[in-house]
TrEMBL record:
The lineage of its organism: Bacteria, Pseudomonadati, Pseudomonadota, Alphaproteobacteria, Rhodospirillales. Gene3D superfamilies: Crotonobetainyl-coa:carnitine coa-transferase, domain 1, formyl-coa transferase, domain 3. It comes from Paramagnetospirillum magneticum (strain ATCC 700264 / AMB-1) (Magnetospirillum magneticum). InterPro entries: CoA-transferase_III_domain (IPR050483), CoA-Trfase_fam_III (IPR003673), CoA-Trfase_III_dom3_sf (IPR044855), CoA-Trfase_III_dom_1_sf (IPR023606). PANTHER family: SUCCINATE--HYDROXYMETHYLGLUTARATE COA-TRANSFERASE. The keyword Endoplasmic reticulum does not apply. Pfam families: CoA_transf_3. This is Predicted acyl-CoA transferase/carnitine dehydratase. Keywords: Transferase. SUPFAM superfamilies: CoA-transferase family III (CaiB/BaiF). One of its GO terms (molecular function) is CoA-transferase activity.
Length: 411
């Protein structure tokens, strides 16, 4: 029987020592699944992304700028506690919290927490059941391990920018990063997978474990078929713009008033496309009859297709293609994404509570669980919003004790 009050991870306590994106993206997803996530931030400053704007959330009463949209995107549902881990008292508070936690996530540079006595070996001694996830640019081993790692450089080093962007010989060609921080976001997702696996392992053994995640490792793995193409064929793939190295036609095509995507995945779909464009004979042409032939004769076929798609308004061509069940779609800006009937039917925009603004819009989680759904009842926290409550509930500190720590700059 369904129980709407039950969440998949509502018995899991996560201590979040991460900031910026990869770690917070991981812990936001754990929060969406019901985990209680305690985000530890530096007093008076907090996560760097609180200031990464514009735009900023604005206090409706005073018009003062609050947190940046960047921060709001990755910190839904967490409890913010301010602790200065550079102080002995702050380190002790974090050790006490780690003793009660199921999971700890951090993204400090190699050895960054060891000097504070907050590394895995130190915390394992006080909590053998702790699942400790470290996220760094290059992992814990290898010659690059001490280096800082940022998404942009990791996209370059991991091969992403060698296959993203227009062909080198064409105008605008050359290296191009993805429009989102794909290395950070992918690492956050992989961190969730590893953490859930480690928690399941703990059910069998009673022991936690250490998780070593490197952005470069993740980015190389995300190259998937492109990496495998090199490993099997021995030739590094090149940039192909909006085209696909192994499927034709599978790219953006011009119309009377813009562009749209046509993604033909098999020979039957190509035959239907040829009919829609008024050239059914193309499906019998030996140069185009099979996908492998269309790939070989790409330079002939694509201009023929473009000449025909230019004759149609985008909406008209999309309708004709959809009626024939040919995969296609518009190239939406974000306003059109959220206006799309499918996005609205799936409730991809949600509103969550916020202590400053009342509510704040957020992008829905893609995780749809029938018996333990994501519930949008907790928004991104203000800096230190839950310090007193968390230290009181978990560590038993009363108000005077917290105020004494605040007076010393510890919290």
């Amino acid at each position: 029987m369904r129980n709407d009050t039950m969440r998949a991870l509502d018995d899991i306590l996560v201590l979040d020592l991460s900031r910026v994106l990869a770690g917070p993206w991981c812990t936001q997803m754990l929060s969406d699944l019901g985990a209680k996530v305690i985000k530890v931030e530096k007093p008076g400053a907090g996560d760097d992304t609180r200031g990464w704007g514009p735009p900023f959330l604005t206090d409706p009463a005073t018009e003062e700028k609050g947190d940046a949209a960047y921060y709001l995107a990755a910190n839904r549902g967490k409890h913010s506690v301010t602790i200065d881990m550079a102080t002995p008292e702050g380190q002790e508070l974090i050790r006490h919290l780690a003793a009660k936690a199921d999971v700890l996530v951090e993204n400090y540079k190699l050895g960054g927490l060891k000097k504070y006595g907050l590394d895995y070996d130190a915390l394992k001694a006080v909590n053998p059941r702790l699942v400790y996830c470290s996220i760094t640019g290059f992992g814990q081993t290898g010659p690059y391990a001490p280096r800082a790692g940022y998404d942009f450089m990791i996209q370059a080093m991991g091969g992403m920018m060698s296959v993203t962007g227009e062909k080198d010989a064409l105008p605008g060609g050359g290296p191009q990063k993805a429009g989102i921080a794909i290395a950070d976001l992918s690492t956050g997702l992989h961190a969730v997978i590893a953490i859930l696996a480690a928690l399941n392992q703990r059910h069998r053994t009673g022991r936690g474990q250490y998780i070593d995640l490197g952005l470069l490792d993740v980015q190389v793995s995300m190259m998937s078929n492109q990496a495998q193409t090199y490993l099997v064929g021995g030739k590094a793939p090149a940039r192909a713009g909006n085209g696909h190295a192994a499927i034709v036609p599978y790219q953006a095509f011009p119309t009377q008033d813009g562009h749209l995507i046509i993604a033909v995945g098999n020979d039957g779909q190509f035959a239907k496309l040829a009919e829609v464009l008024g050239h059914p004979e193309w499906a019998a042409d030996q140069r185009f009859i099979l996908n492998r032939s269309r790939v070989e004769h790409r330079e002939v076929l694509v201009p023929l297709l473009e000449a025909e798609t230019r004759r149609f308004p985008s909406a008209h061509l999309l309708d004709a293609l959809e009626r024939r069940q040919i995969p296609c779609g518009p190239i939406n800006t974000m306003d059109k994404v959220f206006d799309d009937p499918q996005a609205q039917a799936r409730n991809l925009r949600q509103e969550v509570p916020h202590a400053l603004a009342g509510t704040v819009p957020t992008v829905a989680s893609p995780l749809r669980l029938s018996d333990s759904p994501v519930i949008y009842d907790r928004g991104p926290p203000l800096l230190g919003e839950h310090t007193e409550v968390v230290l009181g509930d978990l560590l038993g500190l009363d108000a005077p004790a917290v105020e004494a720590l605040r007076a010393k700059g510890v919290v």
